[in-house]
Amino acid sequence: GKGFAVVAEEVRSLAQRSAEAAKNTAQLIEDSAKNVDNGVALTSEVQSILGEITDGANKVTDLITEIAAASREQADGIGQVNSAVDQLNRVTQDNAASSEQSSAAANELNSQVQQLMDLLSQFQMTRQDGGRQRQQQRAPARAEAPRRPRPEAPPKGRGRSASQVLPLDDDDLADF
Length: 176
Prior knowledge:
mainly alpha, 3 helices, rod-shaped
């Protein structure tokens, strides 16, 4: 008797503990299944986010490629502008040199015109003052050679400046 009751009590206690362990195991399995479902959902979400990150990285790569191409085009354009500026600089220097040469030539011509006008006015004064008297006063010891008639120069206005005789229009030099 008494041993049988002790054994029965132990079997009952063991059965209760087994039932509780089974409940706990079922609960753990249920919790694990929920965690697996959550893990699957999180994995899907991570996969979606990684896809978006990959798309964003591809867009950034495309933008960087476009920026690099645009930068190369701008560098080429800047090179062309630099070349054009260099050419303009050379042309400007050539024009300045030509302008200086033209100015020097104009000044020389102006000087020569002034000299010619002075000579011409001396000839006119000689003719108006009775050129023979003046020449005789200058060279009395010379024998007078037969004179050829001088061609008459067209009358020139006295006191005219070189710029009136040969005007230097600055408008003609505007291209330089």
